[in-house]
Amino acid sequence: MKFCGNCGSQMDDNASVCPKCGTSQGAAGQSAAAPSAAKSANNLVNNVKGMPKAAQIGICAGVAVVVVLLIALIVSAFTAYKKPIKTFFKAGIAYDKAQKKYTLPAEMEKENYKTKYKFKKTEKISKSILKDMQKAFNKEFNSDYKFSAGKIVKVHVEQSGGEKDKDYDMYFIVVKKGLKWYIYDHGMMSDDTSLSDVLKDYTISD
Fold first, then answer.
1. Please, what is the Cα angle at 153 between 150 and 154, to 5 degrees?
2. Which of 36, 86, 122, 170 is the residue whose CA sits 20 to 30 A from 58?
3. Among the listed residues 158, 130, 163, the one whose alpha carbon sits nearest the alpha carbon of residue 146
4. Distances (CA, A) of 54 to 32, 51, 60, 61
């Protein structure tokens, strides 16, 4: 396969003159495997400029969509660990709503809490602690899971709508198995407890 050294158009291997711009190729043109990047880019731009306005708009829109999707994928890759935690709270809120539909009114609490949560802090779990967690999990459940990554996350929770508002912190330990993140464990945190303090409980002593 040969390309014109002047305009970048594809040519027949045996052709000595470009059928598009009429430039004689000579020996140098025949040996060229492809045009320079600059000429190729210039040729592409000229081709787009020669298209109707509607076609140009369509191409620009298509490029914009691709760029947006790439950005979304990158952002998703860095925040995917939050997804199981969000699902945890959504499931809890959905359960409370469903419970009100099948439970006798006298059994239900008078409070009608509304829950809000906010991600406060995230720390990466070291490979050594992650390995200990993996070992403990596989031993308890007789499994052979491999955790490729882990994070511990501090979440601040606010519940309002009852006689007394509730305000507290929770920790979530999430691990990555394959391409998905899962909640390994979670619990309440006191004000004087750090995420590092929580992780000490998951270290196996030799």
1. 165
2. 36
3. 130
4. 35, 8, 10, 10
Instruction: Assess contact for 132 and 204: CB atoms under 8 A.
Output: yes
Angular region, 161: left φ>0, alpha ψ -120 to 50, beta rest: left
Distance CA 6, CA 23 (A): 7
**What pTM did the predictor assign?**
0.63
What are the beta bridge partners of residue 154? Answer: 121, 171
**Among the listed residues 147, 154, 153, the one whose alpha carbon sits nearest the alpha carbon of residue 133:** 147
Range 97-132 burial, b when 16+ CB lie within 10 A, else e: eeeeeeeeeeeeeeeeeeeebeeeebeebeeebbeb
Q: Which amino acid would we find at residue 17?
A: V
DSSP 112: -
Distance between CA atoms of residues 91 and 109, nearest Å? 19
Q: Which two tokens stand for residue 171?
A: 């920790």
**pLDDT tens digits along 80-131:** 999 999 999 999 888 888 887 888 876 666 556 788 999 999 999 999 999 9
